[in-house]
Amino acid sequence: MRNGFKVFDADTHLQPSVETLTPYMDAATQARQPELAQFLREVKTGRAGQVLDPPFNHWYSFKRSGGWGGGKPRHLGEGGPREQEKERHFQNFQGRIYPTRYSEDWDIDTRIGEMDQEGVDVELMVHNAFIGHEDLSVDAGMIGAIHRFLDDVCGRYPDRLTSLITANARDVENAVGEIKTWGGSRWARGVMVDLPLDFPIDHPDLHPIWAAADDAGLAVVHHSNSAGYPGYRDLWDNPFIGRTASHPWGAMRMTAAFLGAGLLDKYPNVNLAILESGFGWLPFWMKRMEDQVHYMGYVAENLQHTMEEYMTGGRFFAAVVLHEGPDMVKMVSDFMGDHVLMFGSDFPHAESRFPDSVDLVLGWDQLNDNDKRRLFWDNPATCFRWD
């Protein structure tokens, strides 16, 4: 709590290493580690840009990544990538003090201390499972391991740490099983689907996942990333364009597909949340989608609501990104209602203003205490059904 406000941070990150996850792997997955060693990648840079010292921990990298996160970068105004610049530099840290490197891996007590330092009561921690192996049993083993890890570490602080269930769209049966296994856990607040490239989020094959989420009362969560998002093939090799456009467009596409397919009608117990994708575009997209429903069509038949009703009816939520600021918060809230936006810091990534993210929002004088209370607590608690 900070200055009398309870704070639910709806956009933070946790990325346990292979070393951290190994004790949580089942026997079959552990037995395959020598075979999987070819996919190990040393982690030499912290998620806020810290230069780490050896010994290095590792991540598995089973699939090639595209987009602005890989390949040789081109500076705008130049004819091609610079010959001596083989890869892009890491983002510039926007905060004042680097988070501890271990707070996103194994040292949960340190993470709780950093939450206290910033004034955060509850975190939703977004993770990436090590999946994308050609053998789906490897993916299943990795997903099971991270869910057991989350059950352990969140269980140490059940009133402070929450996370998401990973659902693999390539293995719907396993995804449904994981939701049924963990959907009743206090830490599990939503489902995030990992999609193969070019596979639509509204595909009917995914309905069992939405049905399982609906039965468990879990939110469906979209969090954009640097690889696999729409438009990743068309960035002219420029990281500035990539990072600027990728996250909003990824969330725009997901929102349009999910709402236009009538999935909120079919699964009335599901909330939809977008994280780290900007929010100033929401009114524009809401109005444009509504026009296109009538102008273009190609949406589900017999939609029960307008696009505006879907996005303002209490089941759609968006985490703010701090750089868009208080005027944008007020504009969107005035247009869509004060029940849509949620506080998000992006801790411990470089975009976080750690340890000042909460204090930054507290200083937004354009917002009154009720606005801040809705942003900090009421809206994320409603979205993720937290009590």
SSE map:
Blueprint: E1 8-13, H1 18-21, H2 27-31, H3 33-36, E2 40-42, E3 58-60, H4 108-118, E4 122-126, H5 136-156, E5 161-168, H6 172-182, E6 188-194, H7 207-216, E7 219-223, H8 239-260, H9 263-266, E8 272-275, H10 282-295, H11 307-312, E9 316-319, H12 325-336, E10 341-342, H13 357-362, H14 369-383
Parallel strand pairs: 1-4, 4-5, 5-6, 6-7, 7-8, 8-9, 9-10
Antiparallel strand pairs: 2-3
Description of the structure:
This protein is α/β, with parallel strands linked by helices. The protein is built from 14 helices and ten strands. The chain has helices at residues 18-21, 27-31, 33-36, 108-118, 136-156, 172-182, 207-216, 239-260, 263-266, 282-295, 307-312, 325-336, 357-362, 369-383, and strands at 8-13, 40-42, 58-60, 122-126, 161-168, 188-194, 219-223, 272-275, 316-319, 341-342. The strands form two sheets. The protein has an eight-stranded parallel sheet with strand order 1-4-5-6-7-8-9-10, sandwiched between helices. A two-stranded antiparallel sheet has the order 2-3. The two termini are 16 Å apart.
User: What is the percentage of strand-forming residues?
Assistant: 5-15%
How many β-strands, per DSSP? Answer: 10
* H and E order: EHHHEEHEHEHEHEHHEHHEHEHH
Helical segment count: 14
Mean pLDDT: 94
Q: Strands of the largest sheet, in order across it?
A: 1-4-5-6-7-8-9-10
Kindly name the structural category.
alpha/beta
Distance between the termini: 16 Å
Radius of gyration: 20 Å
Shape: globular
Largest sheet: 8 strands, parallel
Helical content band: 25-40%
Q: List low-confidence stretches.
A: none
